[in-house]
């Protein structure tokens, strides 16, 4: 039998790229260069099926490859699968079910549907799916494909549920049909290194009212950790396979579910010489203490991600945050961690269950305070969105607060789908938009901290001619001009840019010459030949490309133009002020991005 394990269709019929994360919530964007989360549960499912069955199993990822319905259908059709396994979220169900129906039409492919949407609406999806798997699904899928009598398979709708699996019996997840490293290029936007997503634990001991993991993915709240030696084995395997690997993003629900475990895991990492990797981890505040933070720092951890959610008591109660809500302790931990060199990433939600305008204003004040005190390195915002199957959803539905239900709006980033008369959607959006303005403050903090002396390690030759490409907003360009001037005082700085910013460029005291190619983006094919010659004649020592993003995706044309100009040394500066040496392939693993 041929079994296709497929992550979702990557681009929906409206042209949105999926940021598919079924165990949390799936978001979407018009940015087709967006990163992809490693579909970890499907990936474990794939490796279990490869290990424990004789079927021909193939793993496909429509999100990673940015495939729309037609392209994904054509790709998977080459395999003509007998079975299709998918993990669908509410946001992806329309595209995924259309995909499954088309494969069934072509090859009679049986559809095994898993994930939160199937768990929440089993009856509805069973109208087109052949098997509906509830909650944690790997072992249920295995038994289906081992041919076990369906009535005896736990977790297969409408049978009884299955207990959570033993995480220490899992093989390493899929890394053959897709490369785990490819999910790090570009990686999750806040990951600062070339990182692979990995999972030292599963589940969570809490059950926040909005959470898919805490309410849908597992039969009951639970947290299971993998043996530290098993995690070490995975890290060693990955490092051997990918020598360019710089770090690991432990993207489970709560990496630090127990203090004892954290002390053991960090010790094992150190003892096995893996503390030179950089670790970026999803944590909970409540099991954390100073000793654990010290141990993490000592093992190479650099960023601690915390679900802070809110600073409002009523919202904390409404969302059932329980011991996760303790603002004074949160601040103490962030102070200690920052003092020892850790960075903190916080997630905040607006319009959460039980929240009021006052609650969300308190959250805004907390964010401002943490940013002002340089305790919050990065943050992520969401409009609290009741994912079907969660207590939040059930209560909002019962109260009649869900307006114009359209699953496409359940992405937490663009729409407020709850309209509570006491705290209407418009007010939630207003507070959310205020919070979005703080991104600028966060960027400024990071830029100031990173960009200080950021060109120090870059030597330039005697011509002292620098060419800066105007490829980002003027604020960033002006910041970089300041840094260049500070570092190379006796150099001559030219800027190559667009007509629309001539005045601003010419008014900058650090700019000696301005070259204009017209308007619009840099386009290698249309770049004026005479200008290219003038620039080549200047014999630039250093070329600088500002990235308006973290990793430099989408700069192929400007890099090609720079190459044709013949600049001696090329660097890029990302949105946070980090300088990338574009000639050194070892430079954070990203200089090869074109
Ligand atoms: S702490 Fe995080 S993972 Fe746990 S239930 Fe709450 S939101 Fe979910």
Protein traits:
binds iron/sulfur cluster, pyruvate-formate lyase- activating enzyme, alpha/beta, 3 domains, six-stranded parallel beta sheet, six-stranded mixed beta sheet, 594 residues, Rossmann fold
Approximately how much helix is present in the residues? 25-40%
Which CATH class of the largest domain?
Alpha Beta
- What are the distinct ligands in this entry? iron/sulfur cluster
Which fold name corresponds to the CATH topology of the largest domain? pyruvate-formate lyase- activating enzyme
Give the overall shape, derived from the CA principal axes.
globular
Annotation field: number of helices: 19
- Estimate the mean pLDDT confidence: 93
Distance between the termini: 40 Å
What can you tell me about this protein's structure?
The strands form 5 sheets. The chain has a 6-stranded parallel β-sheet, covered by helices on one side. The protein has helices at residues 40-52, 69-77, 93-107, 116-120, 122-125, 138-145, 212-217, 228-241, 259-271, 290-298, 313-318, 327-339, 357-372, 391-399, 425-451, 474-487, 502-506, 529-537, 556-565; strands at residues 2-7, 17-19, 27-29, 56-61, 83-87, 110-114, 131-132, 195-198, 201-204, 222-225, 247-250, 278-283, 301-309, 343-350, 378-383, 465-469, 492-497, 513-516, 542-546, 569-573, 579-581. The protein has 19 helices and 21 strands. With 594 residues, the protein is α/β, with parallel strands linked by helices. The chain folds into 3 domains: 2-152, Rossmann fold, CATH 3.40.50.280; 180-450, pyruvate-formate lyase- activating enzyme; 465-581, Rossmann fold, CATH 3.40.50.2000. The structure holds iron/sulfur cluster.
């Amino acid at each position: 039998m041929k079994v296709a394990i497929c992550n979702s269709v990557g681009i929906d019929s409206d042209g949105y790229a999926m940021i598919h994360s079924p165990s949390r919530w799936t978001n979407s964007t018009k940015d087709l260069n967006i990163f992809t989360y490693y579909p970890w549960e499907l990936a474990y499912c794939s490796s279990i099926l490869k290990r424990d069955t004789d079927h021909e199993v193939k793993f496909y990822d429509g999100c990673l490859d940015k495939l729309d319905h037609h392209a994904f259908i054509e790709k998977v059709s080459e395999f003509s699968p007998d079975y299709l396994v998918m993990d669908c979220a509410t946001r992806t169900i329309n595209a995924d079910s259309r995909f499954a129906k088309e494969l069934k039409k072509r090859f009679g492919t049986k559809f095994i549907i898993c994930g939160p949407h199937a768990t929440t609406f089993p009856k509805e999806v069973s109208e087109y799916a052949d098997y509906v798997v509830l909650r944690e699904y790997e072992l249920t899928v295995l038994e289906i494909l081992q041919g076990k009598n369906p009535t005896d398979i736990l977790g297969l709708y409408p049978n009884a549920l299955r207990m959570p699996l033993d995480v220490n019996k899992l093989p390493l997840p899929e890394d053959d049909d897709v490369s785990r490293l490819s999910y790090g290029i570009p990686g999750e936007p806040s990951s600062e290194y070339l990182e692979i997503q990995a999972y030292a634990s599963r589940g969570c001991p809490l059950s926040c009212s909005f959470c898919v993991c805490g309410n849908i993915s597992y039969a009951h709240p639970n947290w299971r950790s993998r043996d530290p030696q098993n995690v070490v084995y995975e890290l060693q395997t990955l490092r051997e396979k990918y020598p360019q690997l710089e770090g690991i993003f432990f993207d489970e629900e709560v990496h630090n579910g127990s203090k004892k475990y954290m002390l053991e895991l960090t010790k094992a990492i150190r003892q096995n010489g893996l503390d030179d990797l950089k670790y970026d981890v999803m944590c909970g505040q409540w099991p954390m203490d100073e000793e654990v933070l010290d141990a993490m720092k000592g093992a190479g951890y650099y960023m601690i991600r915390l679900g802070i959610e809110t600073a409002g008591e009523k919202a904390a109660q409404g969302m059932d945050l329980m011991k996760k809500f303790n603002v004074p302790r949160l601040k103490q931990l962030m102070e200690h961690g920052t003092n020892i060199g850790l960075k903190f990433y916080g997630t905040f939600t607006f319009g959460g269950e039980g929240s009021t305008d006052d609650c969300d204003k308190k959250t805004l004040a907390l964010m401002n305070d943490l940013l002002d005190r340089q305790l919050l390195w990065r943050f992520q915002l969401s409009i609290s969105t009741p994912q079907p199957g969660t207590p939040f959803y059930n209560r909002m539905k019962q109260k009649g607060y869900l307006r114009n239900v359209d699953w496409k709006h359940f992405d937490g980033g663009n729409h407020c789908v709850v309209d509570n008369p006491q705290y209407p959607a418009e007010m939630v959006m207003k507070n959310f938009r205020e919070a979005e303005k703080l991104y600028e403050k966060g960027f400024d903090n990071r830029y100031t901290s990173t960009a200080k002396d950021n060109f120090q390690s870059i030597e330039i030759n005697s011509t002292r001619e620098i060419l800066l490409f105007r490829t980002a907003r003027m604020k960033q360009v002006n910041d970089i001009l300041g840094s260049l001037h500070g570092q190379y005082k006796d150099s001559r700085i030219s800027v190559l840019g667009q007509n629309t910013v001539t005045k601003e460029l010419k008014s900058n005291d650090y700019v000696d010459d301005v070259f204009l190619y017209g308007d619009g983006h840099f386009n290698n094919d249309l770049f004026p030949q005479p200008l290219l010659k003038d620039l080549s004649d200047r014999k630039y020592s250093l070329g600088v490309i500002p990235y308006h993003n973290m990793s430099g995706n989408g700069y192929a044309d400007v890099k090609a133009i720079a190459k044709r100009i013949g600049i001696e040394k090329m660097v890029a500066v990302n949105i946070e002020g980090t300088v990338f040496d574009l000639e050194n392939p070892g430079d954070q693993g990203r200089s090869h991005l074109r």
